[in-house]
Amino acid sequence: xxxxxxxxxxxxxxxxxxxxxxxxxxxxxxxxxxxxxxxxxxxxxxxxxxxxxxxxxxxxxxxxxxxxxxxxxxxxxxxxxxxxxxxxxxxxxxxxxxxxxxxxxxxxxxxxxxxxxxxxxxxxxxxxxxxxxxxxxxxxxxxxxxxxxxxxxxxxxxxxxxxxxxxxxxxxxxxxxxxxxxxxxxxxxxxxxxxxxxxxxxxxxxxxxxxxxxxxxxxxxxxxxxxxxxxxxxxxxxxxxxxxxxxxxxxxxxxxxxxxxxxxxxxxxxxxxxxxxxxxxxxxxxxxxxxxxxxxxxxxxxxxxxxxxxxxxxxxxxxxxxxxxxxxxxxxxxxxxxxxxxxxxxxxxxxxxxxxxxxxxxxxxxxxxxxxxxx
Length: 375
Fold this sequence. Notes:
Layout: H1 36-78, H2 102-105, H3 113-145, H4 151-163, H5 166-176, H6 182-187, H7 198-224, H8 229-237, H9 242-270, H10 274-279, H11 290-299, H12 303-328, H13 335-343, H14 347-350, H15 358-374
Helix pairs in contact: 1-12, 3-4, 3-7, 3-9, 4-7, 7-9, 9-12, 11-12
């Protein structure tokens, strides 16, 4: 605009006010039916359960026939005695008389001395042999795992004792522990290995460790082969020595395979029968185990006592399995691996615990906003 003097005046200032626009909300989705999705999931779950039951039905049938039925038959048999002369009537019974829990009660009286001797021998062999086999098996696994010339020959040589049948192994060690055998020639002494008490026990322990230590070594080797080499390289760069790498890396990572191997070997040691039976002989108090006692009672037609001893051995083995699973964390079925995946997130090991999923990033953003407002 022009003033009277002919000069231009600046245009008047326009005062505008910003009006906030209404927030644009996304269109609401129609509510999902509360019955459609659960029905689909439940139908799918039911079909999967039926398929799973159909697939494991043959296995359950076989286990019922070979395990459940014999256990109940043994329980029934343990409640009966030996047929013969009835002291009350004076007649000879052709059938086995019902004696109730007398076969179990005899174990805790003077007649149970043989049972407790066999129980102690079974426990001794199970503990000593498994400890020695575990130590030697881990050493064998470390040797077989090393990259060296002739590693295939070393692996084959170590696994040969485990491939030999137990009966053949017992005969071979019987020749070694003979009074004119290799063992006495090396020691320079004349030891009657099968006649003594502890000498017979040590002959069983040495023969069993020689045969089954490669079994633990083989399973431990399988656990060692899944450990990445980058872990050892990082430990070396941090200055960790050989013993530190073994105790901090090798043992923790190989523990699942090692615990399962020790569990299976313990169960096999508690059922030891053929090695002491062939190497030393039957009815020897020095090496008689519970399995040998059951066989001897059954061969003398004392089926009730044999069934009672067999059930107690079954209960003993069951307690050992339960202790291994609960105390040492033996993961036999693989369910513990899934639980660990649910409990520990992979992001805590990969990127220091930073959020990776969309939900985690949103939650972290909300926490950061809250901290900024409070500040």
